[in-house]
């Protein structure tokens, strides 16, 4: 059962909710609240920030019935998703929130941290003594897993970190954190991944995070993840995805051309520099993923469908 369900309060839904004090819901800025939450807590994932923004909304809603409240939540969920170029991570959170509001979903403080810690506990033993882990991006789940491995095997494994040329400060931060944990860390650019994997044979496994884990067990993640996964497959290197179950989504993707939102990485010009997308993502299909490392254990990609059916009762709402 997914973490959100495990932490839901098991009580029968009622047609009445307590009257909440505060301004009318039309005065509540769901978009500003969402961005404020992300800014104030860098550890929040986008689905969790969306859920917390909706919880903040409920504290301002003077409605008296479940049906009225659900209508307000739905309207603000759509408004929030329409405010960003890539609404899929937000949809994972808003869908989950809407599904469980009927049973008064309440996430306890620290429950998402507990899920991330669960990922670390489930996956750290995969980082064996003498191994070298290649990673990419800035996933808190991945960093937590490596930190947990470092506590039990200090100085006994290495990390190859693939830098993001568009996010030098972020790359510096992640590398600094890994080295501060006592993990010997080498930095390479994305163009060097194939050489490091195939020629030097120094990589034991790849561990990356995800913004969204799709219904098929594939992932939407930082641009470059798909490329790394294909290279890992060709070199017979295991490709693991570390992520909490609240990132599971009912969205079903087939390829890079149908991400569910508009994203164009090509900007053809005759003069000047091409523009660069902010936070571009790609889709890594499940056949390139060895296993998912979740707070519920290490699972095959097919586990996602089982969880979605368990939570929602259907795959397409």
Automatic annotation (TrEMBL):
Name of the protein: Translation initiation factor eIF2B subunit alpha
GO molecular function: guanyl-nucleotide exchange factor activity; translation initiation factor activity
Subunit structure: Component of the translation initiation factor 2B (eIF2B) complex which is a heterodecamer of two sets of five different subunits: alpha, beta, gamma, delta and epsilon. Subunits alpha, beta and delta comprise a regulatory subcomplex and subunits epsilon and gamma comprise a catalytic subcomplex. Within the complex, the hexameric regulatory complex resides at the center, with the two heterodimeric catalytic subcomplexes bound on opposite sides.
Keyword Cytoplasm tagged: yes
Pfam families: IF-2B
Keywords: Cytoplasm, Initiation factor, Protein biosynthesis
Organism: Bionectria ochroleuca
Assigned protein family: Belongs to the eIF-2B alpha/beta/delta subunits family.
